[in-house]
Design brief:
mainly alpha; 353 residues; 2 strands; single chain; binds heme C; Cytochrome Bc1 Complex, Chain D, domain 2; two-stranded antiparallel ribbon
Length: 353
């Protein structure tokens, strides 16, 4: 398996959460040349080094059969109302499962108001969508499938199409039991299983944490120091192994937010204009940025933070002018690019079957 690189030896289920502090200790058990390689065959259910085991709900345990079925469904345009749009059209592997558009287009070219976020590492999330309106992946995927601005699926039609397909008839019974006929409820479980294994943790920065000191340049190291500094406070929101605190904040993008964000769910004035902190993994390939795709480049994202955002009433108090030099800005951008995981972008287990 070409996926089995040295760092892939480090892929195993573990409950160690990494931070830059524990990184050195972690390396001793993993990255050293003398470590005995794991003879276990790598599985799509293995997690990147330092990641917790993949959580899955009790009524939808993770199995290889469901994952494989979910992968087929992820690429199947027939699920959408006019059969023109599959999950992959808005979540493309080569763009770290985003679509490159400011806001994505659903069936009939219908514009949603939001930027397509990455689906990587969402298995660890507790709130889905930018406003956190779904609390499980199953609920989230139900939303994607039936939303008028996304796939706008017709439940009866989906069932009909799946039941008429011999691959699906066999694979649904292999995955869910021999008497299980395809339907959209089970399709959602399979899709969630596939999304759960789309993990990203093999960036140059991860390799650096595992002891490959040459993985980062001097400028990238300077960017890392700034990212984790008191001065920028980036890492106080973009923290942990997935660079997110899973909370909702306003970064002061606007004086008046057209999209009310988290307040759409909570109805509270203090939540207007707050959005879920996105992961920064692979942000080098997920432009444009922010909930509405209004910021085109990482350079512009850094300019936004350096200016300290607009004087919006709910703006988080950490968003203040940073007084970065142009070298600082360049270094921060360089650091963000080290979070790109080339393995993820090419991994064949995630490709169209
Ligand atoms: C028309 C484009 C489009 C299609 C098709 C689509 N999505 Fe999405 N997806 C989005 C957008 C936009 C969001 C964010 C919406 C929001 O925050 O309100 C999103 C959010 C998500 C999220 C949550 C990410 C997070 O961090 O909260 C997951 C997971 C996801 N989609 C998976 C899927 C799956 C699986 C399918 C197929 C059943 C699918 N999507 C189909 C555009 C799309
Ligand atoms: C108060 C918490 C907070 C702090 C501090 C913070 N961010 Fe963010 N960041 C967010 C939130 C929330 C968003 C999404 C905002 C939106 O969509 O309107 C975001 C968005 C981003 C994005 C766009 C990601 C995407 O996929 O769209 C990047 C890149 C980013 N932040 C980098 C940084 C850097 C670099 C710093 C430090 C200079 C930083 N952030 C500081 C909370 C924070």
């Amino acid at each position: 398996m070409n996926f089995l690189t040295k760092s892939a030896y480090c892929y195993r289920n573990t409950l160690v959460r990494f931070s830059s502090v524990v990184a050195c200790a972690v390396f001793i058990s993993c990255g050293s040349e003398t470590a005995v390689p794991d003879t276990k065959q790598p599985s799509v259910m293995d997690v990147p080094f330092g990641f917790p085991a993949i959580p899955a709900p009790q009524d939808n345990p993770l199995t290889l059969e469901k994952i494989e079925l979910g992968r087929h469904l992820f690429y199947d345009k027939r699920l959408s109302l006019d059969q023109t749009l599959a999950c992959v059209d808005c979540h493309k592997q080569e763009l770290a499962f985003t679509d490159g558009l400011p806001v994505s287009r659903g069936v009939n070219g219908e514009h949603g108001g939001r930027n397509s976020p990455t689906i990587v590492n969402t298995s660890y999330q507790t709130a889905f969508f930018f406003d956190g309106r779904a609390s499980t992946l199953e609920e989230q995927i139900h939303g994607a499938l039936f939303s008028p601005v996304e796939m706008y699926a017709d439940e009866g039609k989906v069932t009909e199409i799946l039941q008429a397909d011999s691959y699906y008839k066999t694979q649904f019974s292999t995955a869910f039991g021999k008497d299980s006929l395809p339907n959209s409820r089970l399709a959602i479980k399979a899709l969630a299983s596939f999304v759960r294994i789309v993990l990203s943790g093999d960036s140059r920065y991860d390799r650096f944490l595992q002891g490959q000191t040459s993985a980062l340049t001097m400028m990238e190291l300077r960017g890392r120091d700034l990212f984790f500094s008191e001065q920028t406070q980036c890492a106080s929101c973009h923290n942990g192994f997935n660079f997110t605190d899973d909370k909702f904040h306003s970064t002061g993008l606007y004086l008046h937010y057209y999209d009310k964000g988290r307040a759409l769910v909570t109805n509270q004035a203090k939540d207007v204009g707050t959005f879920k902190t996105p992961t920064l993994r692979n942000c080098g390939v997920t432009a444009p940025y922010m909930h509405d795709g209004s910021v085109a480049t990482l350079e512009e994202v850094i300019e936004h933070y350096d200016h300290g955002g607009k004087a919006f009433v709910n703006k988080d108090k950490r968003i203040v002018p940073l007084k970065l030099s142009s070298d600082d800005k360049q270094a921060l951008v360089a650091f963000l690019h080290t979070l790109t995981d080339e393995t993820l972008l090419k991994r064949k287990e995630f490709k169209k079957p």
